[in-house]
Design brief:
By secondary structure, the chain is an all-alpha fold. It has one domain. 69% of the residues lie in helices and 2% in strands. The protein has a two-stranded antiparallel ribbon. A hairpin with a 5-residue loop joins strand 1 and strand 2. Helix 1 packs parallel to helix 5 and helix 3 packs parallel to helix 6. 39% of the residues are buried.
Length: 276
């Protein structure tokens, strides 16, 4: 029988999950983000809410008076304003997440060297990536809730399923934020950020945002249906009127896969850049 010498045997440290990518301290990144948001960036974040509202007023009410009713999900007739409002909500979630995860992240990555400093601490690359993406989701949540209030006040919501448009907007923001941060990790100059607007504008114009894709040839439709914003627009539109189907689940899974892919690539890129 072994004698108790009164000394405790030192236990080896537990291995960090995800191969050292995650230290379980994403909260530190979030705390810093909220401090900066409260002191410096709140006006910029608030300004992003007005763009979809202006589009809704100009196109939904202005042009909508000339268009009248259109065919919505499930074949039911709805007003033109009710047709484009869910699409503008998806677009708002996309824009907020993308610009927060590209331009903001690019400055921190290439000029402020913030992530390099963070990764010299106990934080892992996945902590940093998840924390920054979570901050983008906060921005998307603010936009989604505010725009939902506008839709309710204007009478553009016709189903209780529309409540799920807020978490759906968060999922859309999550997908775009992950891919945006992953793409930003490959950018080296500010000129590369021009590609962001170059890609977002066609998605906004052609992803069934303001008119159905039936006006295009079949080949163009397939190309549009491969775009992530189209899936977000269709999912939001179906939730707004309660016309749910298996297609809604397909749109949901699209963004789940997009989110996982974006976060994984972003975390691995941060580790390869700063933890060589």
């Amino acid at each position: 029988m072994a004698l108790d010498t009164g000394e405790r045997t030192a236990r080896p440290p537990r291995p960090r999950p995800f191969g050292g990518l995650y230290a379980g301290n994403m909260r530190a990144v979030l705390e810093r983000g909220f401090i900066v948001l409260a002191k410096q960036n709140w006006a910029i974040v608030a300004s992003g809410f007005f763009e979809p509202v202006f589009y809704l007023l100009a196109m939904g009410l202005g042009l909508g008076g000339l268009v009248g009713t259109v065919t919505g999900p499930g074949g039911r007739p709805i007003t033109y304003a009710a047709y484009i409002a869910p699409a503008l909500l998806a677009t708002s979630a996309m824009n907020g997440a993308v610009y927060d995860s590209t331009m903001n992240v690019f400055f921190k990555l290439r000029y402020a060297k913030l992530y390099q400093a963070m990764l010299q601490t106990s934080l892992g690359a996945l902590d940093v990536a998840a924390g920054e993406i979570a901050m983008a989701l906060v921005r998307g949540l603010l936009y989604a809730c505010a725009f939902m209030v506008v839709m309710v006040v204007m009478g553009l919501v016709s189903s209780w399923w529309a409540v799920l448009m807020v978490p759906a907007a968060l999922l859309v923001a999550f997908g775009f934020a992950g891919i945006g941060m992953a793409a930003t990790s490959f950018m080296k100059t500010f000129q590369h950020l021009d590609m962001v607007s170059f890609l977002l504008l066609p998605m906004f114009l052609f992803s069934s945002t303001l008119y159905p894709i039936d006006v295009f040839p079949v080949g163009v439709r397939w190309l549009i249906m491969a775009m992530p914003l189209w899936h977000g627009v269709e999912m939001m539109r179906q939730l707004s009127v309660g016309a749910l189907s298996w297609a809604t689940a397909g749109h949901l899974l699209y963004f789940v896969a997009m989110s996982l892919c974006g976060v994984t690539v972003a975390a691995r890129r941060l580790r390869s850049l700063f933890l060589r």
